[in-house]
Amino acid sequence: MDDATGRPVKLDVSDVCIGYRDRRSGSFFAAVQDLGFQIHENEFIAIVGPSGCGKTTFLSAVAGLLPIAHGTLELNGAPITGPAEDRSLVFQQASLFPWRTVAANIAYGLEAQRRLDAAGRQRVADLIELVGLAGKEGKYPRELSGGMSQRVNLARALATDPDLLLLDEPFAALDAQTREVMQEELTRIWQADEAGAGKTALFITHDVPEAVFLADRVLVFSASPGRLVESVPIDLPRPRNRDVKRSPEFMDQTEYLLDLVMRQSGLRQEVES
Ligand SMILES: Nc1ncnc2c1ncn2[C@@H]1O[C@H](COP(=O)(O)OP(=O)(O)OP(=O)(O)O)[C@@H](O)[C@H]1O
């Protein structure tokens, strides 16, 4: 399915409401409401918004872990009805198998899909190289730093060549310096991975400069229940490296988005009054 821009639509979100039911009272609480937007193939989308606005809830529904209460949520033209191999998730905490080596952790998804043949093993070797873990393939998770663990996590998510990469604050637990390095690494990996060059990605973050640096487009959600306030295209040229953060365009877009997010949180009024 193509939209008006002529680019294939990867994820179609139409009039979506997702929420939770109170176990005791049975009443329904909407975490996100009236969500409507489209994500195109090869787009890198960041979602920002005040704490509790439903970013993780939305990502969980796209992952197929939560049902939608209303609307339509379609991936490649078909409704999302549950988790599937076409989506990979990366969380804040690298959930690696402690008993598996780096290489075996990265190979896990391919193994589960019975795709760890010669091509699969080559894919694992290429990814180890790509994420900068050459020489560490035999190490165990307990021997890795936080940044290294997230590299393994990323490589594992990319290994199966998913249609959609879902990242929920993957760098939030890292120290500031490692986080900066990992942002650069992610854009490099995202651009360089042959199988997944420019793979469609949904990235949740609290960090507006991180969103601007990584994304083709930033979606701003309102305070709870989360609604789409604005979709802001990021026109910074690619490939991007840390120098881009010093450009006036980067600073302008960051400032604009920070203002927008602070308004959603009610923080801007507090600052102004
Ligand atoms: N399992 C759950 N059961 C009931 N309510 C929930 C559940 N998970 C989240 N919520 C509520 O749904 C709303 C949205 O939460 P969600 O975690 O999706 O927001 P978020 O934007 O990701 O938050 P943050 O930025 O703080 O991580 C919040 O009010 C939260 O308390």
Automatic annotation (TrEMBL):
Identify the keywords attached in UniProt to this record, alphabetized.
ATP-binding, Nucleotide-binding, Transport
Residues of the ABC transporter domain? 11-248
Question: Which InterPro entries does the protein's record reference?
Answer: AAA+_ATPase, ABC_transporter-like_ATP-bd, ABC_transporter-like_CS, ABC_transporter_ATP-bind, P-loop_NTPase
Entry's SMART domains?
AAA (SM00382)
Question: Gene3D superfamilies under this entry?
Answer: P-loop containing nucleotide triphosphate hydrolases
Q: Which Pfam families match?
A: ABC_tran
One GO molecular-function entry: ATP hydrolysis activity
Q: Which residues cross the membrane?
A: none
Task: Identify this protein by name.
Answer: Sulfonate ABC transporter ATP-binding protein
Which species is this record about? Actinophytocola xinjiangensis
